[in-house]
Amino acid sequence: MKSDPHRDLFPGALEMMILQCLKRSPLHGYALARHIKQSSDDLLRIEEGSLYPALQRMLREGWVQAEWGWSATHRRIRLYRITRSGAKHLQREVSSFERMLKGIFQVLAT
Amino acid sequence: VKPLTWLQHLLDRRRLARDLAEEIEQHLEETVAELVREGMPPEQALSRARRQFGNPALIEQQAREVWAWAWLENRLSDLAFAFRQMRREPWFSTVACSSLALGIGATAVMFSVVYSVLLHPYPYKDAERMVHIHIFDHEAMLTDLLLSSSQFERFQHAPVLDGAIAMDQAPMSETGAELPESVLAGHMSANAFQFFGVAPLLGREFTPQDASDATHPARVAVLSYHFWKKHFLGQPDALGKILQLNRENYAVIGVLPPRFAWWDCDVYTPLAYSPDPDRTAMVFARIKPGISLALAQPELEAFLAEIALETPKHFPRELKVGLVPLNDIFVGSFAGTIYVLLGAVSLLLVIGCANVSILLLARGKGRTQELAIRSAIGGTRVRILTQLLTESLALGMTGGVLGIGLAVMGSRLIPRFLPPGTFPSEAVFGVSVPVLLASTLLALGTGILFGCWPAVRLSTPRLGQWLQPGTRTLTSGKGAKRSHDILIAGQVAMILVLLAAAGATVRSLYGLMHRSLGYDPHHLAWLTIPLRDGTYASWPQRVRYFAQVREDIASLPGIEAAAIAYTYLPPVSRFRSSAELRGRSSETHLVAIQQVSSQYFSALHVALLQGRLWTESEALRGAPLAVINATMARRDWPKSNAIGQMVHLDELKARTSWTLEAPQNDGWVQIIGVVSDTPNDGLQESVLPAVSVPYTLVANDSFDVVFRAPGDPRSFERAIREQIHRRDPEQMAGEISTAEEQLDFAGLARERFVTVVFLVFAGLGLALGFVGLYSVAAYTVSSRRREFALRIAFGAQRTDVMAAVLRAILPTVLTGVSAGLFLNFAIAKLAEHWIGGNVRDPWMLAAIVLLAITVITAASLRPASRVAGIDPMDVLRAD
Asked: Angle at the Cα of B417 (from B412 to B418), degrees rounded to 5?
C-alpha cells in the first residue's frame, strides 16, 4: 500500500514502543499516541490511527490486556496493560534491536 | 496466534468490534477537546483531528482484520447470498439439486453396500483373520475340515492359529409341540463364544465351565435373535425356560444380538466331546496376527498331514488345505459385481455433476452483467471466484443433504433387493458413520468439482463487452461454447456406456430365462427330512424307512410325483467325484454325482434318452447301477454305446459314522441308462458330466423328498408333515423350498438384480442427460434470439431455424456417442467379466445409439420450436 503509515518504521518498531510505554504505566489509546509523539519530539511520523491495528495485534498475541475504566477527566477510556509475555517479548525485541543498531553504526563508522 | 484467545475473541467479536469503534470515537473526541482547549474553533479542530488520525473506517477495518474475522464473515455472507440466489431461481435450483441428490444418494447407497458386504460384514472379533479350512484332493474341493474330538484338541494349538472352534450343525426335533418342528442347532465347542467375542443381548453365553464334564456338557441353549423373536415372541422371560430338543431338556441361558448369525442356526449348544474317532465336526480357525494366509497354509497342511495319519479314511490321499477368509465364502464373485456397480454409480454421479456444470454455465450467461458490475466496483478475480465456488458448494451441500436422505431410505430397502446368498446374514445395511462421512466428502467434493469450470470461465469477465448493451454480439462467445460442448459430449459418452451395460444385462437375463433347462421348475419343490441322531442305524432299516416316507408322500391326493434325492435341484449339484472308466484307468474325470430314487427323473420331467432306470427292488437291494447324462455319454462314448459300461466313483463311500453303505458297495457302478441334460454347475456354465446312482448305495442321515404338485407346492406342507408324523411321531421335517427359488439362488436373482440396477442407472442417466441438453438448447436459443429473429425477418422458415439449432448441437452429440462407443469397447472385457452378457453386440449398440440420439434430439428441439415461433420485430425492437 502506498499510504502505509509504517513507512518510516521497520516492522515491530511500533509494537516495541507501545510496549515500552505501557511498561511504565497502563495507558489508553489517546494517551499512548500523545506519549509517543512527545517523547520522540515529533521526529517520527506516525498516523495516530495506526496504533489501533497494532494494539489489536498485540491483544491477539497476548502481549497486552485491555479493560474499560475512567480517566482523571471523567472520560470512559480503554486502558491497556502490559502482560508478562508482553514484557518478555519487549526484552527480546529491544536486545535484538540494540544489536542490530550497533551493527549498523559500526558499518557506518568505517 | 494463541488459539484460545482467538476463539474467545471470536465468540464475542461483536462486543470487541463495538469496543474498537467506541475507542476510536473517544480518541477523536479527546483530540478535538484538546485542540479546542488550545483555542482552535471546533469545526477546524474536528478536521484537524481526522487528519492526524487517518481514515477511521479503514483503520477500524484493518484492526478487525487482525483477527481474521473478515474472511469468515465474507464466506458466511457469500453462503447466504448463494442460498438467496438458489431461492430466486427455483427451476434451476430444483434441477441442479435433484441431479446431485440422485447422484450422491445412489452413490451413498452403493457405499453402504460396499461397507456392509465387503468391508465390515461380520460382528465377530478380528473377523478378517477368521478362516474356513477347506480340504482338497488334487483340484476338487471336498469339504470343510472335519476332525474328531481328540484331533481337534491337538489342532487348536497349531502354532499359526490364534484359536479355533469345532462345530457340528444339525437339525433337531423340537418335541413337546403338536407336530415336531425342525430346529437348526449349532453344537459348538465350549470356547466358541470367547472365540467370537460378541456379547449376548440377554443372559449369558456358554463357557468352558459349562463343559467341565467334556463328554456330557450342561444342557444349555443360547438362542439366536431371530429364533427368540419367532419362538419366544421376543419376551425377556425366555431366559430360564426349557426347550425340548430330541426329547432332551435344554435350559435357555441367553439370547444373541441380531447380527450373530453364524451358520444361521436357531440355537447354539455346547458340543460334547466324543472318544469315537469317526464322530467328527467342522473346524474353523483364526490365524495369528501378522501371519499371511500363504504362510499359514503350508504350516497347517503339514500339521494336518500328521493328524490325518490317525484316521486316513477321513482324508483324501493327497491332502491339500485351502484357507478361505470368512468374507470370500459369501461374496466371492459378487465383490467384483459390487465394484462394477460402484463404478456405474459414479458414472451416474459424474453425469449429474456435468449437468450442474452445464446449468451453471448456461445460467452464467444471464449473470455476466452482475459479475461485470462486481468486478467494476473492485471485486478481485479471487473474490468473484470464491463467490461462485461458494454458490456451487451451497448447491453441493443441498444436494448432499437430500442425497443422504435418499440413501437412508434406499439402504433400508437393499436387503429386499440384493440377491440371496450374496451377502452374509450378519451384514446390516444402513448409513453408518463411515458411509455418512464418505457421502459428505462426496457432496463437498462434487460441489467443488462441478463448480470449478464454470467459476473459472465466468470469473474472467470482459467488462466492456457486457456493460455496453449496444455492442452485444450476435452469437455467443466461442470459449463458452467449447466448454459446453466438452461437457455435453462427455455426458453423452457416459450415458452411452451405462446404456450399453444395461442392454447387455437385459440380453443376458433374457437368454438365461429362455435357456432350455431340461427340466420343468414350475410346481416343483422339496423338503429335507433329517434323521435324529442314532435312529434307523442299520442300512436295511434306513433305506426301507426312506422308501416308506416317499410312498406316504406320493400317495397324498394332489401330489403328482415324489422322489428321494440326496442332491440339490438343478442348476447346481451337491457332490463331485473323480470318476474312472473301466478299461481306461489312466484317465480320471470330475463328474457330478446325484444320489436319487428312480422317480426323480419323472418328477423333474427329465427325459430318458436311452436304456432304462433301476427298479424299486433293485434300489432296495442296493444294486450298483447308474444313469448318466447326455453330456457324459457324448464325451466318454461318442461312437460306442454307454449302456453296460462300468464307472468307479471315488466319493461313493461313507466318510462319516452317520452314513451307511450298501453291503456290497465298492464304488463301481454299471450304466443302464442315459437321461437328458440339466444344468448342474450353475446357470451360466456348461453342463458337467453327471452320474445318478440309487440313493440306497450310500444312505445319509438326512434326505430330501422332491415332489411335484399343482398350484403352490407349499400348500401341501401340513399334509406332508402329518404323513411323516404318522409314520414316526418323533420325526421332524424341514421347510419347503421351491425349484424356482433354487434358480433364484443359483444366480437368476443376482442376474435380475444387476439388470434392474443397470436399467435404473441408465434410465436416470438418460433423464439427467435430457434435462441437461434441454437447458443447453434453451441457452443456445436464447443467446441467439437476435440472430434467429434476423433470419426470420429475412424470410427463413421455421424448419430452417430448427435445423440451425440442431446443427449446433448434433456434432457434439455425435462426438459424445463415438467417445462413448470407444470407451465401451475399451472397458468391454472388464464389464463383461463382472456383469455378464455382451456389451459389444452390434444390434444392441445400434438400438441404444438410436435411443440416445432420439432422446437428445427431442430435448434440444423443444426450445428450438419455441424460438421458431417468435415475432422477429418484437425481438429486434427490444434492443
From this structure: 100
Spell out which residues of chain A touch residue B59, defining contact as CB-CB under 8 Å: 49-50, 52-53
8 Å CB contact between B147 and B155 = yes
Please report the sign of the dihedral spanned by the C-alpha atoms of residue A61, residue A53, residue A99, residue A23.
negative
Task: Provide the terminal-to-terminal Cα distance of chain A, rounded to the nearest Å.
Answer: 35
- The mean pLDDT value of chain B amounts to 85
- Where residue B368 falls among pLDDT bands split at 50, 70, 90? confident
The pLDDT value recorded for residue A4 is 44
Radius of gyration, CA atoms only, chain B: 38
Amino acid making up residue A12: G
Contacts of B3 in chain A (CB under 8 A): none
Q: What is the DSSP string of A70-94?
A: E-TTS-EEEEEEE-HHHHHHHHHHH
| Band of pLDDT at residue A3, cut at 50, 70 and 90 | very low
> Which cell numbers hold the place of B229?
423373536
| Structural contact between residues B197 and B125, judged by C-beta atoms closer than 8 angstroms | yes
Q: How far apart are CA B574 and CA B731, in angstroms?
A: 24
Q: Inter-chain contact B26–A62, Cβ cutoff 8 Å?
A: no
Distance of CA B785 to the CA centre of its chain: 49
> Measured between alpha carbons, how far is B850 from B844 in angstroms, rounded to an integer?
10
Q: Which residues of A touch B19 (CB under 8 A)?
A: 66, 68, 78
Tell me how far apart the alpha carbons of residues A30 and B26 are, in angstroms, rounded to a whole number: 8
Contact B307, B154 (CB under 8 A): yes
**Cα distance between residue B765 and residue B664, in whole Å:** 66
Burial of B163 (0-12, 13-18, 19+ CB in 10 A): buried
Is the pLDDT at B553 greater than 90, yes or no?
A: yes
Contacts of A62 in chain B (CB under 8 A): 2, 5
pLDDT in tens, B106-135: 888 888 888 888 888 899 999 989 998 988
**Residues whose CB is less than 8 angstroms from the CB of residue B179 and which lie 6 or more positions away in sequence, other chains included:** B721, B722, B725
Q: How far apart are CA B583 and CA B570, in angstroms?
A: 31
Asked if residues B628 and B692 have their Cβ atoms less than 8 Å apart, the reply is yes
First to last CA, chain B: 57
Angle between helices B56-65 and B69-88 (to 10 degrees): 100
The count of C-alpha atoms lying within 13 angstroms of the C-alpha of B370, restricted to the half-sphere facing its C-beta, is 10
The bridge status of strand A27-28 relative to strand A64-70 is unpaired
Separation CA B744–CA B755 (nearest Å): 14
Give the cell for residue B420. Answer: 440371496
CA distance A79 to B23: 10
Query: B376 vs chain A: nearest CA distance in angstroms?
Result: 20
Q: Which residues of B touch A56 (CB under 8 A)?
A: 20, 63-64, 66-67
B193 burial (CB, 10 Å; 0-12 / 13-18 / 19+) is buried
Respond yes or no on whether the N-terminal peptide bond of residue B571 is cis (omega within 30° of 0). Answer: yes
Give the pLDDT of residue B672: 96
Question: Residue B735, exposed/middle/buried by CB under 10 A (0-12, 13-18, 19+)?
Answer: exposed
Q: Which residues of A touch chain B, with CB atoms under 8 Å apart?
A: 5, 28-30, 33, 47-50, 52-53, 55-57, 59-62, 66, 68, 75-78
Could you give phi then psi for residue B569, rounded to 5 degrees?
Answer: -70, 155
Cβ-in-10-Å burial (0-12, 13-18, 19+) of A93 comes to: middle
Instruction: Tell me if A62 and B23 make a contact (CB, 8 A cut-off).
Output: no
Asked if A60's CB is within 8 angstroms of B1's CB, the reply is yes
pTM of the full predicted structure?
0.73
Average pLDDT of the segment spanning B349-370: 81
Largest CA distance in chain B: 137
